[in-house]
């Protein structure tokens, strides 16, 4: 199923997108991508692989944030990230990159980018997985925001959820440096 020109086949792109949807936690995206994969002729195990890789990577991203929370609270954790299971396929690594990007976990995505390179993925394939994930993440955010807005404005239909600044927008000193990495 691997394309000879360094790109990805349509079914692989859809698998990467489904993994990203799982990483982003977008139920609507998954609802739309599942039948797309079926229409492209994906077998149940190919769809299952995309789902599992996305969920695996979302769990790894969550483990990283748990370790960060523990460190912020002064607790030590022996586990910085989810353990690696060893060598995985090129496509699995591309799906994990996408899920990491969609879950906003740069360390996870970068770890799997290295794994993808070791598994034979081209830089073009890695960039494609990242691009697909960013698109899915953007759609997921819009869908989630719309669902939240609809639910939160039922009692007061004319009341919109206000746009507000991030508290880091007014930070100074060393906090200002952190601002460039957050909420910008």
Assign the CATH class. Answer: Mainly Alpha
In angstroms, what is the radius of gyration? 18 Å
Shape: globular
DSSP E strands, number: 0
Please trace the helix and strand order, writing H or E for each element. Answer: HHHHHHH
Q: Biggest sheet: strands, sense, closure?
A: none
Q: Kindly report the name of the CATH homologous superfamily.
A: AhpD-like
Note the quaternary state here.
single chain
| Count of alpha/pi helices | 7
Percent of residues in beta strands?
A: under 5%
List keywords for this structure.
single chain; 184 residues; AhpD-like; 65% helix; globular
Explain what you see:
The protein is mainly α and 184 residues long. The chain has one domain: AhpD-like (Up-down Bundle). Helices cover 65% and strands 0% of the residues. About 3% of the residues have low confidence.
List the helices and strands and how they pair.
Elements: H1 10-24, H2 27-39, H3 44-72, H4 90-102, H5 106-118, H6 123-152, H7 174-179
